[in-house]
Structure prediction request, 337 residues.
Amino acid sequence: MDRAPLFALGRRSLAAVLVAAHVLTTTPSFAQDAERAKVEQLLKQGMDRRAAGHDAEALEAYRQAVELDPDNARALAHIGVTYQALGRWVPAHKYLTLALSHGGDPYIDRHEGELTAALSVVAGHLGQLEVYGGPLGAEVMLNGDVVATLPMADPVQVTVGSYLLEVQAAGHYKLGRPITVQPRQLTREEVGLAPHRPGAAASSDGERASEPARPSDAGTSEPHGGAPRWLPWVLGGAAVAAAAGTVIAWQRREHYASLWNDDADCLGVGVSREERCGSELDRGKRAETMMWVTGSAALAFSAGAVIATIWIEPAEEQVGLSGCAPGLGGAVCFGRF
Prediction:
């Protein structure tokens, strides 16, 4: 048997195997190099857009760079400071924290002071919110956006400000209340949703069945009668606010009266009291008018509170009432949750 052809065949097979191995080992390297080049291109594009004052366009470039290389410290730093420039404090905190976690990276080490300062500024615009209670699985919403479900594993970062906190769960009444998140502070809210009353179960088509009509809703002649139970509290609060306004107005009137009657300040050679202290007289008269107006309002609100207390509706007619009414210098709120 001729060995030469066999040796030639073996050499060709070995060469093919080596070429295939080289292709397999170098192809990922080529792909990684192309990916790194794309990331660098996106970073440069983002920096150029920021330099031109187009932060939103820069943010899109940085987002693409982070999608391609989520562990790229430079990309994380750039997207963090861009979110900061746009006032997007929650994602800015997230990405700046991630960037600073890459200790030892040359870029991060060079800019650690700047990134730490930026993170401190961002943290000043954030607070934390923790909602606890039930039922399990209830959705926690801020201004209509779902931010968590109960139970919460950890507090969530929230931009400082005022919000409408809402909690909802199937088969329960929805809860809503205003909250304020303070900078660098933890806001904790306890909630507990009441289940729907019997007769409010879901029907077979998945929609909530209507509740059976009460006798008073069915056209019976039995009158409801009475004022709502919250009305005396509202009127009483308004009376207190008006009375406080009366006291303040009276104090101001007395102050301006004393200035008007001060001969040392309001009398001079060739100058009348009206010429020198006429403004004090005008202010005193305005304060007196305000005193009479708020005093009359306090009396009217007080009388209304007394009448509403006497003519109050039965307790069983009250279900989850809440609201606010205007008062002097603010609002008087009532409610039962």
Summary: The chain has a mean pLDDT of 79. The first strand starts at residue 126 and ends at 134. Residues 241 and 329 are 8 Å apart (CA to CA).
